[in-house]
Amino acid sequence: MNATTELKAFNQLFTDYQSRFIRFANFYVRDTAIAEDFTIEALMYYWENRHRLESETNIPAYILTIIKNKCLNHLTHRQTVENVSEMLLTNAQWELSTRVASLQECEPYELFTAEMNEIVDKTLESLPKQTKDIFIMSRYQNMSHKEIADKLNITTKGVEFHISKAIKALRISLKDYMPVLLFFL
């Protein structure tokens, strides 16, 4: 076949089958522009490789096979993208749910209370034993100044002195928490 005859045969093939090929591809990819691209690409591939084909090759079937493979590749790629997108969305939803649940369970007052208790414990441990014991009896055991004085054989003024000393040390240790305490109280 000479070049002119080949070109006429190709133009006839294009005229006879183009719309059928596009409909076939569009049925699967559901995008006319992509279906048209696949059809043109398949026809061009056939034209560029026509001399390598055996003479008895069914050319429309050959081109349709190329289109089928392009559609399969396209759909497989879309399926992979959808699966990855779904997985990412699932992970994002899980992460968001976790953050929401974590925030719902978060009790700032309890967090600060735990930190403040730790600071109070360390501060009390740093005080002289008698000052610490008097403060504990007063604040934790709810003993009156007179009961503490009688128990330790000291004056109530001495009890007040030790409590004031402990409170001053705690005020210094907890200075950063005073605004928070005012906020929560």
Automatic annotation (TrEMBL):
Pfam families, per database record: Sigma70_r2, Sigma70_r4_2
BP term (GO), one: DNA-templated transcription initiation
One GO molecular-function entry: sigma factor activity
UniProt keyword list: Sigma factor, Transcription, Transcription regulation
Domain RNA polymerase sigma-70 region: 13-79
Residue ranges occupied by any RNA polymerase sigma factor 70 region 4 type domain in the UniProt entry: 119-170
NCBIfam families from the UniProt entry: Sig70_bacteroi1, sigma70-ECF
UniProt similarity note: Belongs to the sigma-70 factor family. ECF subfamily.
PANTHER family (UniProt xref): RNA POLYMERASE ECF-TYPE SIGMA FACTO (PTHR43133), RNA POLYMERASE SIGMA-70 FACTOR ECF SUBFAMILY (PTHR43133:SF46)
Protein name as annotated: RNA polymerase sigma-70 factor, ECF subfamily
Species assigned in the record: Bacteroides luti
Record lineage: Bacteria, Pseudomonadati, Bacteroidota, Bacteroidia, Bacteroidales
